[in-house]
Automatic annotation (TrEMBL):
PROSITE patterns found in the cross-reference section: PROKAR_LIPOPROTEIN
Matches recorded under InterPro entries: Flavin_Rdtase-like_dom, NADH-dep_flavin_reductase, Split_barrel_FMN-bd
Keyword Transmembrane helix: no
Domain Flavin reductase like: residue ranges: 24-172
Keywords: Oxidoreductase
Name of the protein: Flavin reductase (DIM6/NTAB) family NADH-FMN oxidoreductase RutF
SUPFAM superfamilies (UniProt xref): FMN-binding split barrel
GO molecular function, one term: riboflavin reductase (NADPH) activity
Length: 183
């Protein structure tokens, strides 16, 4: 008996903000917290836009709301840190995505953060963190692209268990799938 398969069809939709956001939601991303400052000056936002740009020089890129609170802070201070979250950090991802998120010492305590070498909050329990000096920024529609030059990096010493964002929900990779992917 011959088994017939059908090929799924795709149809293009009008490209408006809703359709674009829905389509981009199909692309799974990691979840991180971008921090600027530490102690009383700490500000934090949840991000899912982190890109490794270059190995020479060591550059990464993040995208933040142009009208958001963190953009002028990073521009003025010239530095930031990106903390990549593990599955155990889901509550932090949710908390720091809200408009009424905490800041200052309270944010440091909630994250279990310490001050990094650039003076920005870093989370020792994160999957990894990168501390950056601001190399460049580019206005891009309603967002600003921050290009950071990595000056310090720290990776955890436990098996990675990254937090992922996909189709509007947080997810994780099952341990068996992670081991197969690494083989």
């Amino acid at each position: 008996m011959v088994r017939q398969t059908t090929t799924p069809t795709m149809s293009a939709a009008a490209c408006d903000a809703h359709a674009f956001r829905s389509a981009m939601g199909r692309f799974p991303t990691g979840v991180s917290l971008l921090t600027q400052g530490s102690g009383e000056t700490t500000v934090v936002i949840t991000l899912n836009s982190l890109i490794s740009v270059s190995l020479d020089p060591l550059l990464l890129l993040v995208s933040v709301k142009a009208a958001g609170r963190i953009r002028p802070r990073v521009a003025a201070a010239g530095s930031f840190a990106v903390n990549v979250l593990g599955s155990q950090h889901r509550p932090l991802a949710v908390e720091f995505s809200r408009a009424d998120r905490c800041h200052g010492h309270e944010a440091m305590l909630r994250m279990g953060a310490v001050e990094g070498v650039t003076g920005n909050a870093v989370i020792p329990s994160s999957e990894m963190y990168v501390e950056c000096e601001l190399a460049d920024l580019h206005e891009a529609g309603d967002h600003t692209l921050l290009v950071g030059r990595a000056v310090a990096v720290c990776t955890g010493d436990i098996e990675p268990d990254p937090l992922v964002f996909h189709q509007g929900r947080f997810a994780t990779f099952p341990a068996a799938a992670r081991r197969r992917a690494a083989a």
